[in-house]
Specification:
Chains A, B, C, D: Keywords: Coiled coil, Proteasome. The structure is a homotetramer of 257-residue chains. Chain A is of the alpha/beta class and 257 residues long. Helices cover 39% and strands 26% of the residues of chain A. In chain A, helix 1 (29-40) crosses helix 5 (196-210). At the A-C interface, strand 4 and helix 6 of A face helix 2, strand 9, helix 3, strand 11 and helix 4 of C.
C-alpha cells in the first residue's frame, strides 16, 4: 500500500447524491449522527478507503478481534421527502499527517465526484473546553445562499474566528475546486467525551434541512449507552497515554539493538 | 491534489516583471504592505496556487463563508517612474512542513521565471519579542551591489546572525539558482500582533527603491482598523490554542473507535 | 535508496510457511523470543530489508564494528510436530514515521505473500509501566476461530481498550487485506527494560500453539545475560538521551553556518 | 526542486579517491577539520548538492549577502605520501527529516561511487555535555581490519553503547551496501560550542592515518578566531531561539488570515 486506495464493494448508480462526511473528530459528534442515520435508514456499505496516511496501528473490538484502520462509504437511494440519494462517509480514523489529510480528502472528493456529488454536508463538533448547557449548532458554508439557508435553520454562523481543521474543513475546501457546494455543521461540545447531546442538536437541524425523518428518540438510547461508556473511555484514554509514554521510553532502548 | 499546482486565471504578457513576495509571516508585516499595494494600485489577480503542503483546513470569513487555503498572484503593468511590470504574491498561508515549503517555493520560482522575473523583493517582519519604538528596516541581498543599494536606502543589513526562515528566505535562495537577484526587507516588530507600523516602515523604503508612489496615509487607516482587530485577534488566538488542545485530547479518543 | 527494498540472499521454496514477526518493541519481548527460536532451531537468513524510513543512523557492536539498520528474514523447513515451514522476521529497528511503517509493513506482507504465507503470528510486549509479578500473555486475532483458539491456550484477549500500535498491529491489518489470518501475542511487561520473563511467557504459549519444542531453560540463560545488561543499558539510555539533547542544542549552532 | 540534486561545476577524473565527509554536527568538530584541509591543501570545489530536505531557509553572511543551504564537494589530486586522490564534503547544513537524511546520503554515496570511492572517513564530534580536559578521539569501523587499524592509532573504539546518528553514521551504513569500507572518527567535545580542540585531536590522528602533512599550528589560529566567535555565537543562538518562539506564536496568527 503505497497510496490511499478505495476498494469498491458494490457498483451503485446514484443520482446526484448528497454527500455526508462524518469522520471521527471532537466529541465524536458527527460520527454519532452518521452512524445513527446508517442504522436507522439501513444504508448499505459499498466502498472502503485504506491509506498509508492512517495511524500505523489496528483496533481491537470487544471480542478481541482485530479491525484495520479504514473509512467506509454507505449509500441510500431515494430517501426523504425529496427522494434524494445519499453517500455517507464514516470511519475509525482520519489521516495523521497534514499531507496525509490532503491525500485522503482528495481521494474522497475524486470518488464522490465520480458518483455525481454536487452537495456536501460535513458534520463535526466545536469544542468549548467547558461544560455546555444546551448545545448550539455552528455552521459555515461555501456560498452566501447556503449561509443564509443555515441562518434560516437557527444555525449560528462561525465568523472569522479561526478555521475548520481536518476532514470537515478540507473536504469542503477541495470540493469548492470541483464545483461542489456545501456546509459544515458543528455541534457545540465540551469536547473531552463522546457527546450524544451535541449529536442530537446537529441531527435535529440536519433532518430539517434534508427533509429526512429519523427516530431521534433512538439516538437518545444510543446516547445513553454512550454515556455509560464514557467513564470507561476516559480510563482507557489514560491507559493509552501511559502506554504511549512507555513506548516512547522504549524508543531509546532500540539504540542498544 | 497530489502536488502543488497553479491555476491560471488570466494569461498575461509581462515584461521582466519585478516579483514581490509577501506571504503571511511575523507580524503580518509583508502581507499588509503587499495588500496595500494591491488595493491602492489596482493590481489584478491572474493565478492561484493550491498545495497539499498547506495546513489541512479552511478559513471562515466574517460572513461565515469558507475560504480555502491558497496563495494568489497579482500583476501590475507599466507602473511607477520606471514603467515596470510587477507580480505580487499574497496568500492566507505558507507551507507547513519543510519539504512542503520547498515544493511550494519551487513552484513559485518556476511560475514567475516563466513570466520573465529577474528581480525579487521578499517582505517580512523581524521579531524582537519586545516593544519597538520606531521600527527599523532590516535587509539582506543576493549580491554585493544590491546590499550596497540597501545601505543607501537606510536599510540595516543583517549580518551573520542567523538566517531568514520560510518563504522570504527560501524564494531568494531558490531564485539564485535560477539567475534571479533579489533582496529581503524585514520590518522590525514585536511580532506578537499584526503590526502596521512595521509595514509602513517597509513600504516607505520599498516605494523609494521601486520609484512607485503610494498613499501611505491610507496604510495609516488600514493600520487603525488592524489595531482594533488586535485585541480580538489575541482572544481568538487563545481560543484556537484551547481548541487545539481539545483536539489533541480527542486524538486519544479515536483509539476507542 | 529511495524506497524500502528487500535483498534476497537465498532463493527458498517454502510450503505455506507460518510467518512470525518480532521486530523490536516494548521490553524487546518479541525480539527475544524470535532470536531464541532462530538460534535454537538453526533458522537460516535468506533476505534482508533496508528502508529510508528507518532512523538515519547506524549501530556499533561490542567490537566497534558498524551495523546498518535492517530487518532480517530467516526460514525453517519442516519443523515441529506438523512439519511446517516458517519465516521469522527480526531486526534492529522499526520504521520511524507513520508513513514509513506502512511502507515497510506493506513490503513485508508482499514479500511473505509471495512465499505463500497464510498465517501470521506477531509477537510483542504489553507495557504496564509498573512491576509485573507473573507475566500474563495477552492476545488478539483476525478471526473468531483464532480468538477462541487463543482462549484455549490461556491467552487473555485484549478487548476494545486501545489498539495495537506499530508493526505487530499493522502487519496483521495489512495481512487481512491479503487473505492472511493471524494473531498477536503480547507478554505483560513493565516495559522499561529488556524483559526475558515476558518472553518466556510468550514462548511457552507459542510453542504449544505451534507444536514446536524449544529449550526454554536456554532462554533462562539468555535472560540471565540480558538481566546483567540491563543496568548497563539504562546507563547507555541516559547517555544517549543526554547526547540527543546536545545534538538538538547543536541544531541551533548550525544557523551560524 | 522536487528532489536532491548535485550540480557538477568541474568534471574531474579521480583515481579511487578517499572520501572525507564532514557535514556540520556536534561542536562543528568535523567541519573545522575538513575546512582546514580544504584551505591548507588548496582543494578545489567541483560540485554542489541542493535538497528539498534541507531546512527551508537561507543564511546571511557577515556582509548581508544571502547564502543558500548547500553541501559542497572538493577534490585533491595525488596528495600525501601515498599520492592519493581525495573528495572532501562540507556544507552549511544536513538534511532535516529522517527520510531527507536518507535521500541526501544516498545521493552522496551514488555520486562518490561514480567517482570510484572505495574508502570513507566520516568526521564528527562526540558530545559529553560536560567540560573535556584533553579530548580523546573515538571511532568505529565497517570492518575488523579497520577497527584494528584505529586502535593502532590510539583511537578509542565505541562499543555497543548507542549508535552514530546523522550523516556520519548513515553514509558509512549506505556505503557498506555499495562495497565501500570506512571509519568514523569522533572528537570528544562538550558539544555546546564550536570546539577547535576536538578538531585538532581528530586532525592529528587523521593525518597520521592518511599520511598527509598539515600545518596544525594554523588550526590553532583558526581555533583562536573560533574561540572569539563563541560568545557571539551563544548570544546569536539565544536570539535565534527567541525568534523561533515568536515565529511559532505567529503560526497561530495565520489562522486569522
Amino acid at each position: 500500500m503505497k497510496e490511499t486506495f478505495i476498494k469498491t464493494i458494490e457498483n451503485v448508480d446514484l443520482n446526484e447524491p448528497i454527500f455526508i462526511e462524518a469522520l471521527p473528530g471532537i466529541g465524536h459528534v458527527g460520527k454519532l449522527v452518521a452512524e445513527h442515520m446508517i442504522h436507522e435508514l439501513n444504508a448499505v456499505k459499498f466502498a472502503e478507503l485504506y491509506s498509508p496516511a492512517f495511524p500505523p496501528q489496528v483496533f481491537v473490538d470487544e471480542n478481541g478481534i482485530i479491525e484495520p484502520m479504514k473509512n467506509e462509504f454507505y449509500y441510500l437511494k431515494s430517501h426523504g421527502e425529496d427522494n434524494r440519494d445519499y453517500i455517507i462517509l464514516v470511519g475509525n480514523t482520519q489521516g495523521l499527517s497534514p499531507e496525509g489529510q490532503y491525500e485522503i480528502c482528495s481521494a474522497i472528493i475524486d470518488f464522490v465526484g465520480k458518483h455525481g456529488v454536487k452537495q456536501i454536508y460535513t458534520l463535526g463538533g466545536l469544542g468549548t473546553g467547558q461544560p455546555v448547557d444546551k448545545p448550539k449548532v455552528f455552521g459555515a458554508a461555501t456560498t452566501k445562499e447556503l449561509a443564509e439557508m443555515l441562518k434560516g435553520h437557527n444555525v449560528t454562523l462561525r465568523t472569522a474566528d479561526g478555521g475548520i481543521i481536518g476532514a470537515s474543513g478540507l473536504i469542503l475546501g477541495l470540493g469548492m475546486s470541483n464545483d461542489m457546494m456545501g456546509v459544515c455543521l458543528m455541534g457545540e461540545t465540551p469536547g473531552y467525551f463522546i457527546d450524544a447531546e451535541a449529536s442530537k442538536a446537529v441531527l435535529t437541524i440536519l433532518q430539517k434541512i434534508l427533509k429526512v425523518e429519523l427516530d431521534i428518540a433512538k439516538l437518545e438510547e444510543r446516547a445513553e449507552e454512550t454515556r455509560k461508556m464514557i467513564s470507561k473511555a476516559q480510563q482507557m484514554e489514560k491507559e493509552m497515554s501511559d502506554r504511549m509514554n512507555i513506548i516512547q521510553g522504549e524508543e531509546d532502548l532500540r539504540y542498544i539493538g
